[in-house]
Amino acid sequence: VLKLADGDSAGIGRHPGAAPGASGETHQTVCKRLYRDPKILPCLHTFCSDCIAQLEPFSVSSRIQRDVPEGGKRDKPLEADRPAVTITVLCPDCDSEVDLPPSGHVGLSTDHLALDEVFVETLETDGPLGCDLCGEGGAGSRCEVCSVNLCEFCCQAHRRQKRTASHSIQALEELKACGRLVRPVLCTLHPGQELRLFCQPCDLPICLECAATLHRDHRCCPTRDVIDRHGDRIRELVNVHLRPRLERLEESLQKVEASQETLQARVEATASEVRAFARGYASAVEAHCLSLLRRLEELRVQRRNHLHLQGVQLQQALLDIRGSVEFAERLLSCGSDAEILSAKGVTLRRLTSLAERGYDPHPATVAPDDGSSISFMPREPAGEVEGYPVVGVINSKTVDVSRCTIEGEGLQEGTEGQLGHFTLVCRDSAGEQLARGGEHVLVSVVHTEKKNCKVETTVTDNSDGSYSVSYTPQQPGAYSVWVCVKAQHVKGSPFVLNVKRKFRRHRGTFHCCSFCSSGGAKEARCGCPGTMPGGFKGCGHGHKGHPGKPHWSCCGSTTEQSECLPQSVLAAVSPRSHLRTVEL
């Protein structure tokens, strides 16, 4: 009889497979073979019992397992209490952490659907089957009630018997076409006994012998009486809760996948744009580089020609003057009086011409161009090349000291003890501001009368052709300000700086007397020479030394809009109003 009971290994090791049996496949993903004793993990993925046993434990935990007598309670611990080890493994399909029962993989539920599908697989791949009753003829039909394969003779006999005449018999070819069959589920404790009953207290399907022995005091009923209730519960969970969620998950997954495809397409398109931009920008940079190099070559030729012309002029002037000087010296040293007088006319005319109209460059104006004024400014905007903005310019401007300017009022006026500042702007021969710094700038501030009174200055290079100058004069008076660039005075240098005395503000109160302003306090003092009897330290109306009018309590000045008198003046006034001789 061909029956695949729990643990049957019929048809193993046939073909490499793909997916678990719970999804309608007959091969599992670990061993790639037909299922052998398929077991269902708590995550509802099916694997061979042997494959589950070979899984590496993910974690191991222990707890006390208490054995309670069947149908009753206990009042004290039993010796049967023992620690139960729970092994957690990772599902090979979904990587979920699942706990194995205390009995191990053997205690997992058997996937009977996988066994049915394995049987259908054997029907399709193993060829003709023998009759399960006589074992002689080839089976062509199958009784769905008895779950046996029948030859033609046994099939007719099965229909004639009264006990089996009502059984449903189908041809094996029809079963192959349907791909599904009904197979009895046998009890693992009592081989050959079909699980037809359901124990409600234990929540387990059992056979008749289990009901008569192990579950004799339990409420047991046929499986057909409880299948609707349990099936409806499963159906409710699937249709009401999980199926809508499944649809939402599938829809969301489709959106995510569509977004991934859109993202990938967008990234690739953007990457293409970036590469095209990089190629275009590289071409523009290369073109700009060639333009800068051509500009450098033009500057080199221009400066070289200028130096050559300057050299020719200097050489010609040198030859003219040297020849004339040598002739005149030879004439004076070797010629007689008559010879000197005879050549005097032409010699004087030549020497006079050279002295008055000859080329005589000032040393400050003759500065051989060594190219130090040529520089590359990599961060300076250079416009656009082929539609791309580029940076980097060749700067060839040189400073013209005569065109430099000074901005700011700090060059003409200042205040004692206060910070003054002005700005020097270096310009080229065209009057345009240089775009770079680095020039040698010297600023000196000296008192015109007190030569040893110098003011320390600070020059800050702004790296844009301008230089900020700051100073703090400590004494009033006139100062001379020298501003030099490359050891040459700029136009207008030296300048005259007038430093005014610092305005001294009053620190006291403008009052009539200290007695009134303080509310009669004896400790109140006043800067005027007035006194009061009775231990008062300040002044009072009609008393000795009172100015007779409102005055400042800090210095005694009777002018409200005025500077506070210095301490030297206050010290010159004695308590008896006698002036001491002081140097004001």
Which descriptors apply to this entry?
31% helix, disordered C terminus, alpha+beta, 584 residues, 4-stranded antiparallel sheet, Znf_RING_CS, 26 strands, repeat, single chain, 6-stranded mixed sheet
In the predicted model, the low-confidence regions spanning at least 5 consecutive residues are 1-24, 67-80, 574-584
Task: Give the N-terminus to C-terminus distance in angstroms.
Answer: 139 Å
Mean pLDDT: 81
Instruction: Give the tally of β-strands.
Output: 26
Shape: elongated
Task: Report the radius of gyration as a whole number of Å.
Answer: 59 Å
Helix content: 25-40%
Helical segment count: 9
- Briefly note the structural class of the backbone: alpha+beta
What does this structure look like?
The structure is a single chain. The chain starts with 37 loop residues before the first strand and ends in a 13-residue tail after the last helix. It is α+β, with helices and mostly antiparallel strands and 584 residues long. Strands 16, 18, 19, 22, 23 and 24 form a 6-stranded mixed β-sheet that branches. 18% of the residues are buried. α6 runs antiparallel to α7. The longest helix has 112 residues. β18 and β19 form a beta hairpin. 31% of the residues lie in helices and 20% in strands. The chain contains 9 helices and 26 strands. Pfam families: Filamin, zf-B_box, zf-RING_UBOX. It catalyses: S-ubiquitinyl-[E2 ubiquitin-conjugating enzyme]-L-cysteine + [acceptor protein]-L-lysine = [E2 ubiquitin-conjugating enzyme]-L-cysteine + N(6)-ubiquitinyl-[acceptor protein]-L-lysine. This is RING-type E3 ubiquitin transferase. One of its GO terms (biological process) is nervous system development. Its EC number is 2.3.2.27.
